TrEMBL record:
GGDEF domain sequence ranges: 492-627
Residue ranges crossing the lipid bilayer per the database entry: 50-74, 236-258, 265-290, 302-322, 334-352, 358-380, 387-404, 424-441
Protein name (record): diguanylate cyclase
An annotated GO BP: cell adhesion involved in single-species biofilm formation
Cofactors that this protein relies on: Mg(2+)
Length: 647
């Protein structure tokens, strides 16, 4: 049983086993509900946290595609999967070195093969890069084609420049068609990325002429009409998932870039976009969808351009996400040189033919990726976050690129793994790099938190007196305004104390400024400890002056607090021979504003005046002044605004 027969049997058992299929709209609706619930849970978290989960979005999209495949495509395929499709295992090849071969001159196949030295060839072998034309003779009789079903010959390498096909029957050789990636899409017979030629009835041989500036590949298969439809659907689904994953990563990383404003994500977006365009080109979908009517220039230049762009932004992405410059200046210079050369390759690729660039574009990426992996290895040694995943990602990409390049060069056999190795490597690279980027997001978040913490600390330092460790005048102005507003809103009283260390200038003159600073520190500590409530706040107002804000405090509370501060300072017993008290003391003036119906400047002036009253009364005492009914007038303003004849 052929592969399509086995597939048909599996699909048939699927339908027979269930007996019925779930309604499509109910299933998709249920899936959408589950996805919406999961996204809601994710979005309720920290945005930078759920941005580290690209695999969730990718998984949901792939799951939905698979559900669509099972519920919609497979039942349809089951109805037409009774056909056959098989690879051509052996054929004969002639390389055109001198002269040309004219099939119409040969009715006898044996004479054709003998005169032109056709050699037996196995399908897994390939010739690598060759500019010479190659003729491929394919025997069709042994392949088991059963008439009258239409059969198709598929050539599965979309990058062939020119392909001419002849079929042999009882009347001789008949020219079928000319196709290639240099020809418009209208020349093709089937809607697909590869080349398809309908085999006429009673055909015994196919003769194919291949010519290209790139790699010479021999990918031939035979399909009947229904099996070809199945194969085209299979390829469309597989490649749809592949390109869908790439497009998801493009928009995901673009979204992250717009949020985080980190250039690494912009480089990665352009990198994935370049990879996507390159794969569209080499897989034939570029000619199929993007440049159908004028494929010649695009197919001659797009590969060199996209490879150059890929390598340019691979290097920029690596330098940014690993911070290579901080690890090694020499390695950073090497990457910069590779970046410049890759950019030049993209520019030159737009100007010259693919004939000059094809081998360089196959080899140069290997050197760049090796340098990138070395950078990742150095990052591992420096314990950079995500470096191990980064190396694994580009290691997978390197393995895929090496296998694909070796297959294109003709160094390894052609099989399912080597032909699709680059796609597998890209998928692994993108998936693993998404986790590496998650580590990068964590690093960004940690850096942001560190900067915020440093900013808070700097702000707090700007509000704290560096000598005494208590808040400074700037903090005092802010807190006083806030507390007055709060107490006014709550219709509560607020008290303010202005404190001055007595005879402090004389103390500095006698004992020195160092001893004076020590006294300020000790006095601030004692006064802060004398405050009982957490809301009471001590500030250094300037020089030897301090201020205390007492929210929700009336006259009695202010008096008790002031006397407690004076007593605490006296208990320090700091000697002061220039003071009549022979020790350090303080004078305190306090003001109380009922319902906080006062401005901050007036409040400070009243408390300051009370402090000077305490000094006039002999110092080492406490004076309390209640809020006045008339505003405080500056004496200078009084004289300026009073008419002279009244003085």
């Amino acid at each position: 049983m052929g592969s399509t027969d086995r597939r048909a049997g599996q699909f048939g058992s699927f339908r027979r086993g269930t007996g019925r299929r779930l309604p499509l709209d109910i299933t998709i609706q249920s899936f959408n509900h589950s996805r919406s619930w999961l996204l809601k849970v994710i979005l309720e978290q920290n945005p930078l946290e759920w941005l580290m989960m690209p695999g969730v979005l990718l998984m949901l999209t792939v799951a939905r595609s698979l559900i669509f495949l099972i519920l919609v495509l497979l039942p349809r395929v089951d109805a037409m999967a009774s056909g056959a499709g098989f690879a051509v295992p052996e054929f004969f090849i002639h390389e055109e070195l001198n002269g040309t071969l004219n099939p119409s001159e040969y009715q006898d196949v044996e004479l054709l093969t003998r005169n032109h030295s056709f050699q037996l060839h196995v399908s897994k072998d390939n010739k690598g890069y060759s500019a010479n034309a190659h003729w491929v003779l394919i025997p069709l009789d042994p392949l088991g084609m059963v008439q009258p079903s239409p059969y198709w010959l598929e050539y599965g390498f979309p990058l062939i420049d020119n392909i001419d096909v002849y079929f042999l029957n009882d009347q001789g050789w008949h020219f079928a068609s000319s196709m290639g990636d240099m020809r418009p899409w209208s020349a093709r017979q089937r809607y697909g990325p590869n080349f398809y030629f309908q085999i006429p009835p009673d055909t015994t041989y196919a003769l194919v002429r291949l010519q290209t500036l790139g790699s010479m590949q021999f990918h031939f298969k035979i399909y009947d009409d229904t099996a070809l439809d199945v194969a085209l659907i299979d390829d469309a689904v597989f490649h749809g998932l592949f390109f869908g994953a790439l497009i998801i990563m493009i928009f995901y990383n673009l979204f992250v870039f717009l949020m985080a404003r980190d250039e690494a994500y912009l480089y990665y977006v352009i990198l994935i976009a370049s990879i996507t365009l390159f794969e569209l080109s080499v897989m034939g979908y570029g000619s199929m969808y993007l440049w159908r009517d004028n494929p010649s220039w695009m197919n001659s230049h797009v590969q060199a351009i996209t490879v150059g762009l890929c390598l340019t932004f691979v290097v920029l992405f690596t330098r940014s996400i690993l911070d290579v410059q901080s690890m090694s200046s020499a390695l950073n210079k090497i990457l910069l040189i590779e970046c410049i050369l890759s950019a030049i390759m993209a520019i030159v690729g737009a100007l010259v033919s693919n004939e000059w660039m094809v081998r360089f574009t196959a080899i140069w990426p290997l050197f760049v990726v090796i340098t990138v992996i070395i950078s990742g290895g150095l990052a591992i040694l420096r314990n950079r976050p995500g470096a191990r995943i980064f190396v694994a990602a580009w290691g997978a990409g390197l393995v895929g690129a090496v296998l694909f390049s070796a297959q294109q060069q003709g160094w390894v056999a052609t099989n399912e793994i080597t032909v699709n190795s680059l796609k597998y490597g890209i998928v692994l690279n993108v998936v693993l790099l998404s986790f590496s980027m998650a580590s990068h997001i964590r690093k960004l978040r940690q850096e942001k938190e560190s900067y915020e913490k440093e900013a808070r600390e700097n702000y707090e330092l700007a509000l704290v007196d560096s000598l005494t460790g208590v808040p400074n005048r700037r903090a005092f102005d802010s807190v006083l305004e806030q507390e007055i507003e709060r107490c006014r809103r709550d219709r509560r009283s607020i008290s303010l104390m202005m404190i001055d260390i007595d005879y402090f200038k004389n103390f500095n003159d006698r004992y020195g400024h160092q001893q004076g600073d020590d006294t300020l520190v000790r006095a601030a500590l004692i006064m802060r400890n004398a405050l009982r409530r957490p809301s009471d706040a001590l500030f250094r107002y300037g020089g030897e002056e301090f201020a205390v804000v007492l929210p929700d405090t009336d006259e009695e509370g202010a008096r008790h607090t002031g006397e407690r501060v004076i007593s605490a300072i006296r208990k320090l017993c700091i000697p002061h021979e220039e003071s009549p008290f022979k020790q350090v003391t303080v004078s305190i003036g306090a003001a109380v504003a009922k319902n906080a119906n006062i401005g901050a400047e007036d409040f400070i002036q009243i408390a300051d005046q009370a402090m000077y009253d305490a000094k006039r009364k002999g110092r080492n005492t406490f004076v309390l002044t209640e809020q006045r009914n008339t505003p405080v007038v500056n004496i200078g303003d009084y004289f300026k605004n009073t008419p002279k004849d009244t003085l």
